Amino acid sequence: MDQLEMKKQAAQAALQFVKPDMIVGVGSGSTVNCFIDALGSMADQIKGAVAASKASEELLCKQGIEVFSANDVSSLDIYVDGADEINPQKMMIKGGGAALTREKIVASLAKNFICIVDSSKQVDVLGSTFPLPVEVIPMARSQVARKLVALGGSPEWRENVITDNGNVILDVHNFNILNPVEMEKELNNVAGVVTNGIFALNAANTVIIGTPDGAKIIK
Ligand code: 5RP
């Protein structure tokens, strides 16, 4: 079974968590795009969605789903998003699509953070297969890069990418993230860093993994 099929399986399985009249938090990326396609079948049953990126917002609108601002809601029952890596503690690296800041904001509104991935995203140690994205205020790019080098990483500027918030992304290679909670806090404290792609302080509550043997749900 190919990776896209496994993504579709995870996305389809996430529909069982969507209940009538909900406002659904929706992340971004290719797995989430599969979820948005599937969610279209429930467009007339849900109240709407809060989207973590402009790209997801457009796709939700195409499915006839009303999109609310994060400012319009005080909480969400569920938030559904993908990940670039996920460890056994349901902590993640995210931001491959440069939407990490809005993803962290919308995820923090949710009672149940549901991570949908294909099995290739499972790792024991975060940072082992995917560089860590860090969203940075443009004027601070060089000084943040130097700080990341001092912390043992090898940052690479994702040129030609500007986030939905008008910032830049540094992808940090060679970080062995043995203590994700501490590393997330430490990077958040670097002046000029808007968000880092470690999602450990607010890890997922539910993980749905698309595998060659079907979708597996871990609560
Ligand atoms: C975007 C993200 C995505 O969830 C992550 O990159 C996974 O993407 P995909 O589902 O395409 O593999 O964090 O910022």
UniProtKB/TrEMBL annotation:
GO cellular component terms attached to this protein's record: cytosol
InterPro entries (UniProt xref): NagB/RpiA_transferase-like (IPR037171), Ribose5P_isomerase_typA_subgr (IPR020672), Ribose5P_isomerase_type_A (IPR004788)
Gene Ontology biological-process annotations: D-ribose metabolic process; pentose-phosphate shunt, non-oxidative branch
MF (Gene Ontology): ribose-5-phosphate isomerase activity
Catalytic-site annotation from UniProt: E103 (proton acceptor)
Entry EC number(s): 5.3.1.6
UniProt entry tagged with the keyword Membrane: no
Pathway this chain belongs to: Carbohydrate degradation; pentose phosphate pathway; D-ribose 5-phosphate from D-ribulose 5-phosphate (non-oxidative stage): step 1/1
Positions annotated to bind substrate: S28, G29, S30, T31, D81, G82, A83, D84, K94, G95, G96, G97, K121
Gene3D superfamilies: 3.30.70.260, 3.40.50.1360
Keywords: Isomerase
Catalytic activity: aldehydo-D-ribose 5-phosphate = D-ribulose 5-phosphate
Domain of life of the native organism: Bacteria
Subunit composition and interactions: Homodimer.
Function: Catalyzes the reversible conversion of ribose-5-phosphate to ribulose 5-phosphate.
Similarity comment text for this entry: Belongs to the ribose 5-phosphate isomerase family.
HAMAP family, per the entry: Rib_5P_isom_A
Protein's name in the database: Ribose-5-phosphate isomerase A
Species annotation: Lonepinella koalarum
Gene transcribed to yield this protein: rpiA
